[in-house]
Amino acid sequence: MMEWQRDRRPLLSHNGYVGLAPIHVKENDAIVVFLGGQFPYVLREKYGGIFQCVGEAYVHGIMYGEFMKKEVEIRSFTIE
Questions:
Q1: Rounded to an integer, what distance in angstroms lies between the CA atom of residue 44 and that of residue 52?
Q2: Residue 44 needs a FRET pair 20 to 30 A away by CA distance; which of 1, 33, 57, 76 works?
């Protein structure tokens, strides 16, 4: 497990969620859960509403669909 964590860094979201994200995550990256998905991903806006996937994240409290049981904002993303 420690070998897997080597490419991760801690994160604290604007809403107070804590977790681990890919090492190259940046401030203002978006943490999203895709409809029907169980795990959060980090997306980065490149330009004009086009996003790139930074990678999968572990965020305490929103894993395994927990977050989707709350009232959430549903948005569409164009991923390049």
A1: 5
A2: 1
The model's pTM is 0.83
| Residue whose tokens read 């569409």 | 76
Say how far apart CA 40 and CA 17 lie, in whole Å: 12
| Phi, then psi, of 67 in degrees rounded to 5 | -65, -30
For residue 71, the one-letter residue type is E
Helix then strand then coil, % of the chain, to nearest 5:
10, 40, 45
Convert the pLDDT of each residue in 17-26 to its tens digit.
999 999 999 9
Go through the chain and tell me how many residues it has.
Answer: 80
